[in-house]
Amino acid sequence: MKALLLTAIFCILPALARGDGLTVAYFEHPPYCYAEKGQAAGVLVELTRDILKEAGIPATFVTMPPNRILENIRSGRKDFCAVGWFKTPERERYASFSLPIYRDKGMVILTTARKAPKLRRHSTLRSLFKDHSLTLGQVEALSLGESVDQLRKETQVPTLPVTTKQGVLLRLIALNRASYMLAAPEEISALLQAADVPSEQFTILSMDGMPWGNLRYLMYSSNISPGMLDRINAAISNLVKIQSLLPEGR
Questions:
Q1: 3-state secondary structure the chain
Q2: Domains of the chain and CATH, by start
Q3: How far, in whole angstroms, is CA 137 from its chain's centroid?
Q4: For every one of its 250 residues, what pLDDT tens digit does the chain have, with 9 covering 90 and above?
Q5: Model-level pTM?
Q6: Residue 134's CB: how many other CB atoms inside 10 A?
C-alpha cells in the first residue's frame, strides 16, 4: 500500500513542480456538467477528467456561475480551464480553445403546448426571430452558437435574459414571461426536472434553419502555456474521434 502511495506521489510531483495543475470550472448544466454528492459529474466532466489524466495534468474541479467563469478567463489566469463552452468570435478575442471535445445534437425549440400554434406559423428560425410578439428566453452569459447568435443580432429578436440556471427559463415560459427557448435534445429531460414543471405542459418544435449541433471545447485564458495546450490537444486527439464530430463525418 505504501509503495502504491509513493508511486502516485512521485507521478504527481513533477507536474506540480512545473505548475501544470489546472482549476477546472463548470456550471450546473446537466447532462454535461453537474454536482452529485458534492462531486463534479456529467458527460463532459468525465470526458475532461480522462483528457487531463491522459495529458498528465492534475485537475481540481470547481463549480461557479457562468459570469464568474468568464471573469476568470478574461483576467488571464494561466491555471484556469472551463468545460464545454462554445467557441465564438467574441470569446476568441480573450480566450484560447482546445480541439473540439463534443458536438451537441441539433437544436430544437421548447415552448408550451398553448404557445406552440403561434410558433408554428413560422417555418424558419429567421421568421420566428423576426416575430417581435414572441420572446426568446436565454441565459445571459451563454451563447447559442455562432450562427444563431448572428441571427439574433440581425433580427433583433426580443429576448428575456436571465443570470441564473437554464431550468429557470422553463418556469418563465410557463408563467408567460418568455415564449420559447432553444436547447439541445439531450438537455431537455434535465431542464424539465430542474424546472419542476409538468413535462406534458411543454412541446418540442423544429424549423428550417435550425443549426446542426454546436461543437463544445475546453476554454482557457489567452495566457495558457502553449506547451500545456499542446499536451491537452494531443490527449484529445487520442481519446476523441474528432472526425466524427464534423458534419457527415467529414
A1: CHHHHHHHHHHHHHHHHCCCCEEEEECCECCCEEEECCEEECHHHHHHHHHHHHHCCCEEEEECCHHHHHHHHHCCCCCEEEEEECCCHHHHCCEEECCCCEECCCCEEEEECCCHHHHHCCCEHHHHHHCCCCCEEEECCCCCCHHHHHHHHHHCCCEEEECCCCHHHHHHHHCCCCCEEEECHHHHHHHHHHHCCCHHHEEEECCECCCCCCEEEEEEECCCCHHHHHHHHHHHHHHCCHHHHCHHHC
A2: 22-104+214-245 (3.40.190.10), 108-205 (3.40.190.10)
A3: 16
A4: 444 334 443 444 444 444 569 999 999 999 999 999 889 999 999 999 999 999 999 999 999 999 999 999 999 999 999 999 999 999 999 999 999 999 999 899 999 999 999 999 999 999 999 999 999 999 988 999 999 999 999 999 999 999 877 888 999 999 999 999 999 999 999 888 888 888 899 999 999 878 888 999 999 999 999 999 999 999 999 999 877 776 654 4
A5: 0.84
A6: 19
Residue type, 246: L
